[in-house]
Write a structure and sequence with these properties.
seven-stranded mixed sheet; single chain; 20 strands; about 20% strand; 16 helices; binds nicotinamide-adenine-dinucleotide; alpha/beta; six-stranded mixed sheet
């Protein structure tokens, strides 16, 4: 079972829920004429009504970010840094509200994943606030000096998904603002509340227009990607939407960072200490109920250990409790929305209809009130099966047997995705040699899901374009500008 962190559920959360959620435009909290319902996926009850920003309000938000850019980009780095640190403190003061709201709208367990997502996000904001891009001296001779500077881009449009709305939202805000840009953010219509709350917190700290939040439907996203006053789109979501974003962003040659889908393999070689790593691999696949871009989605295990491995994996997995994330007993929460739940119903049906061997779970009980899906393990389905080829984004994992490493590597790479992967072996050199052959933006050897402020993260192939985090991630929010001086 997962370790529990003590969480104080603030009585304030009821006040937060009854409080009207507002857009943040030009430093003010604004109502919208229309609202939309936000559901708790554990009960399918409406927990709040979120403002559905109009196209005119999106225009206003972009115009205010454009006005704010003049002062914000000219502000000294130290001053911007101090304001972002103040923001981190203000988020910290509301972290229990943010975590409880995250569980209510997203479903992930409060005592484990929700509080750790919020804490990780705040840590990120603090650390990024003190990063800067130094001036690079390219040439310094008696006659000539060449310097490389990085200048802000202008207004950045941020579009976020529903699986990690707090972490992925703040991952964009902190580097965007510290490098001198302003932002308009549009959260997923499935999980707008936490974003509106951290937006309202920001409204008390940053100058008007520096950070605007407009919730509403997908068309607002398209309005941003087409808008001539937005210089860059920082997008996290599916590969299908990422392609649309890139297409409509071409109108004014917007800069793009696209963090898209994945179908990450984990490879367990015969010499791995495989019994010891089962808990790690379980959480790497099933954490957030599999709704994770870098979840292990294909587990390749050497044929000599495959049968025993599956048995032990099932033994570990079978007692996991799927339920309402507000309960401290819950290990895995519900599927966040009905659209994703429907996709999983179809995938489970295909797995059953094709007669693949189910080692655990396999049946979704549709009579339950919440969007609950059982932990499911499919034993050695064929490589061409949907469960191996598609990104399920749910708690279902194929464990695939392999004999020949060459064959396994070609299967691992035979996908449009290239987000991340991991290799598990007691032979470090062999692990590194295999890692070098995997087509993915991140490959871990004998560890997984390690991230760092200074470690670039991004996908190869159709898993994305550009990176977040690290020096490269910061540079992604800037233009390169070469200065040359004749001495
Ligand atoms: P999605 O693509 O359906 O939606 C993402 C966002 O795009 C939402 O805010 C949505 O409103 C907006 N949107 C929809 N249509 C749009 C359009 N035409 N123009 C502009 N914006 C539009 O993705 P999702 O279902 O919210 O998220 C799940 C996907 O995100 C999975 O594929 C997952 O792997 C991926 N993901 C990737 C990463 C990463 O870092 N690579 C991280 C998390 C999630």
């Amino acid at each position: 079972m997962s370790a529990q962190i003590e969480v104080v559920i603030s009585k304030d959360i009821h006040r937060v829920l009854h409080h009207q959620f507002c857009l943040v435009i030009d430093g003010e909290l604004r109502e919208a004429e229309q609202t939309f319902e936000v559901f708790n996926p554990a009960t399918n009850e409406v927990i709040a009504h979120a403002p559905s920003g109009s196209s005119a309000q999106m225009e206003e938000a972009i115009a205010s970010a454009k006005r704010a850019f003049v002062g914000w980009s000219a502000m000294q780095h130290e001053k911007r840094s101090a304001l972002i640190l103040e923001y981190a403190d203000a988020l910290e003061a509301r972290k229990h509200d943010l975590a409880a709201l995250l569980t209510l709208e997203q479903g992930k367990p409060l005592h484990t994943m929700a509080i750790s997502e919020v804490e990780a996000a705040i840590f990120w904001v603090r650390e990024v606030a003190i990063r800067f891009i130094p001036i690079e001296i390219i040439e310094d001779t008696e006659e000539h000096l060449v310097e490389l500077h990085h200048t802000p881009l202008g207004v950045v449009g941020a579009i976020t998904p529903w699986n990690f709305p707090v972490l992925l939202g703040l991952w964009k805000i902190a580097p965007c603002l510290i490098t001198g840009n302003t932002m308009v953010m549009k959260p997923s219509p499935y999980t707008p509340l936490t974003t509106l709350l951290f937006g309202a917190i920001a409204a008390d700290i940053f100058p008007a227009g520096v950070l605007n939040i407009v919730s509403g439907d997908n068309e607002l996203g398209q309005q941003m990607t087409e808008h001539p006053d937005i210089s860059k789109i920082s997008f996290t979501g599916s590969t299908a939407t990422g392609k649309k974003v890139m297409q409509s962003g071409a109108s004014n040659l917007k800069r793009m960072t696209l963090e898209l889908g994945g179908n990450d393999p984990a490879i367990v070689l015969s010499d791995a200490n495989w019994r010891d790593i089962i808990p790690t691999l379980f959480w790497a696949a099933f954490g957030n109920s599999g709704q994770w871009c870098i979840a292990v989605k294909r587990l390749y295990v050497h044929s000599t250990i495959h049968t025993e491995f599956v048995q032990e994996f099932v033994n570990f997995a079978k007692d996991m409790k799927v339920g309402d994330g507000m309960s401290s007993e819950t290990d895995l929460g519900p599927i966040q929305n009905k659209m994703q739940y429907g996709k999983l119903l179809s995938l489970f049906k295909d797995t059953k209809d094709k007669g693949y061997k189910i080692a655990l779970g396999g049946e979704i009980d549709e009579s339950l009130t919440g969007n609950f899906v059982p932990v499911t393990i499919v034993d050695n389905p064929p490589e061409e099966s949907r469960i191996v080829q598609e990104e399920p984004f749910g708690p279902i994992l194929p464990i695939i047997s392999f004999d020949d490493e060459e064959d396994m590597i070609s299967r691992v790479n035979a996908t449009q995705f290239g987000l991340a992967a991991s290799v598990w072996t007691s032979d470090r050199d062999k692990g590194i040699a295999l890692a070098k052959r995997i087509e993915a933006g991140t490959v871990w050897v004998n560890e997984i899901h390690i991230h760092g402020i200074d470690i670039p993260f991004g996908g190869h192939k159709q898993s994305g374009m550009g990176v977040e985090n690290g020096h490269e991630g910061l540079c992604g929010f800037t233009n390169s500008k070469s200065y040359m001086f004749k001495k």
